[in-house]
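Supplementary notes for students who missed Thursday's class. We covered one full example, reproduced here. Read the sequence, then the structure, then the short commentary at the end.
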Amino acid sequence: MQLRIWQQNLNSFKTAQLSLLEGPKSTQWDILTLQEPHIDPRKNTTSTRRFHIVYPTTRYNNHAPKSRAVFLISTLLDSNSWSQLPFPSPDVVVVQITGTFGRCTIFNIY
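Structure (token representation):
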């Protein structure tokens, strides 16, 4: 299995995030690791149907600050092949991918 990963700091700009998601590059990647994504007042980020959003596991804690790191994982990647691992920080998201190759753990750290 070959994973194609794109990393980008969006500086919280919605236009930068939309440009990435709606542009041709979004179809070239299995995982987008975003730092400072656009977060709306409900603590949600923007995506398309092509991606599953993975927020920090602290997202729903009381008084948790807004997320500064998220994963967008392609819906073409089998959802049974990956899982989120808990991490006690709003600035870190951890995903583990499992396959014939074994396990690969990916950290997205702001």
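Commentary. The beta strands are 5-9, 31-35, 51-54, 69-74, 82-85, 92-99, 102-109. The mean pLDDT is 93. If anything here is unclear, bring it to office hours.
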